[in-house]
Design brief:
This protein is mostly beta strands. The chain folds into 2 domains: 167 residues, Jelly Rolls (Sandwich); 150 residues, Jelly Rolls (Sandwich), CATH 2.60.120. Helices cover 5% and strands 40% of the residues. Strands 12, 13, 15, 16, 17, 18, 19 and 21 form an 8-stranded antiparallel β-sheet that branches. The relative contact order is 0.16. InterPro entries: Allantoicase, Allantoicase_dom, Galactose-bd-like_sf. It holds the Pfam family Allantoicase.
């Protein structure tokens, strides 16, 4: 998929993101910036400090000198990655949104403290840009392929932001990858590149960490009324040999696929040559609300995997456990560092 907004939100709480620091949280906590659910609002719901907001809101600034003209929040990405775009959502903030914002990024090893982050060197990702109130402000980032671990949101001069989304491609640290790992996981760089249908649920959700808590956290298609079937194409985070495939239909009870099939693609140049694809799992009967696990024997190295569901339905998670070569590990290390 070329749409950067379909890439994983590297800052999301479900992805492992966290808010490390905020200059001010008088009206609403910065931790809500990375909540997974869409912002909500209940009018006339007041607390001790005013109307309750689902987002981050600072007090009105009264600048007293240099450096006192804006608020900021620092967010740890759930996985190191390349940033392709950001969303600064001011939903429900109308007379109290910041007129402008900027985003910077840094890369620090390990688990730095707030003080270490504040003292770090930061690189502009999004220059100071105008915002609209009660709007999902989207910004494509035309940056290089550097890998970042943290972002810093600056708002000018103050106000409220409901959500910060940082969409991009995760690049795992090879030093932290075991011999066998999930090659398709979004946190390891797995990406959905094409899909036949995403009417009810987005296919990239299948690659997110953890178990799905509902049908809404998986991929679900509309009902087919023809002789075809639905499918999704996944580019593995790292090319490798798959040893175990997990296709999880949890929560999909009356709308699970009847059958599914997995094929591997040894080279991206073979995408348009189905005869070159490798059978990983033949067409197999699916059960509703079930974590299916299948051993995969003697599979060659593949770069992409295509999951076909027959004829349609929902899948909560797709896991493809396997290993990569030492050559691939070295390449990943070069890219990461």
């Amino acid at each position: 998929m070329t749409d950067w907004q379909q890439m994983p939100d590297l800052a999301a709480r479900a992805f492992g993101g966290g808010v490390m620091y905020a200059s001010d949280e008088f009206f609403a906590f910065a931790a809500d910036l990375i909540n997974d659910h869409a912002p909500a609002f209940t009018p006339q719901s007041f607390g001790a400090r005013g109307q309750l907001y689902d987002g981050w809101e600072t007090r009105r600034r009264r600048p007293r000198g240099t450096g006192d003209d804006h608020d900021l929040a620092v967010v740890r990405l759930g996985a190191p990655g390349v940033i392709h775009g950001v969303v600064i959502d001011t939903a429900f903030f109308t007379g109290n949104y910041p007129p402008a914002a900027s985003v910077e990024a840094t890369r620090l090893p390990g688990y730095p403290s707030p003080d270490e982050l504040l003292a770090a060197s930061w690189t502009p990702v999004l220059p100071r840009s105008a915002l609209k109130g009660d709007t999902r402000n989207t910004f494509r980032v035309h940056a290089d392929d550097r890998v970042w671990t943290h972002v810093r949101l600056r708002i000018y001069p103050d106000g409220g932001v409901a959500r910060l989304r940082v969409h991009g491609e995760a690049v795992p640290d090879p030093a932290l990858l075991p011999e066998v790992f999930d090659l398709a996981a979004a946190e390891n760089g797995g990406t959905v590149t094409a899909c036949s249908n995403m009417f009810y649920g987005s296919a990239p959700k299948m690659l997110l960490p953890g178990l799905a808590r509902s049908m809404g956290e998986g991929w679900e298609t509309s009902r087919r009324r023809d002789d075809g079937n639905d499918w999704v194409l996944v580019r593995l985070g790292v090319p490798g040999r798959i040893q175990l495939a997990e296709i999880d239909t949890s929560h999909f009870k009356g709308n699970a696929p009847g059958e599914f099939r997995l094929r591997g693609i040894p080279d991206a140049r073979s995408l348009d040559t189905p005869g070159d694809w490798v059978e990983l799992l033949p067409r197999t009967r699916a059960q509703p609300d079930t974590r299916h696990r299948f051993a995969v024997s003697d599979a060659p190295k593949v770069t992409h995997v295509r999951l076909d569901v027959y004829p349609d339905g929902g899948v909560a998670r797709l896991r493809l456990w396997g290993s990569m070569s030492e050559k691939q590990r070295r390449r990943l290390a070069e890219r990461h560092f």
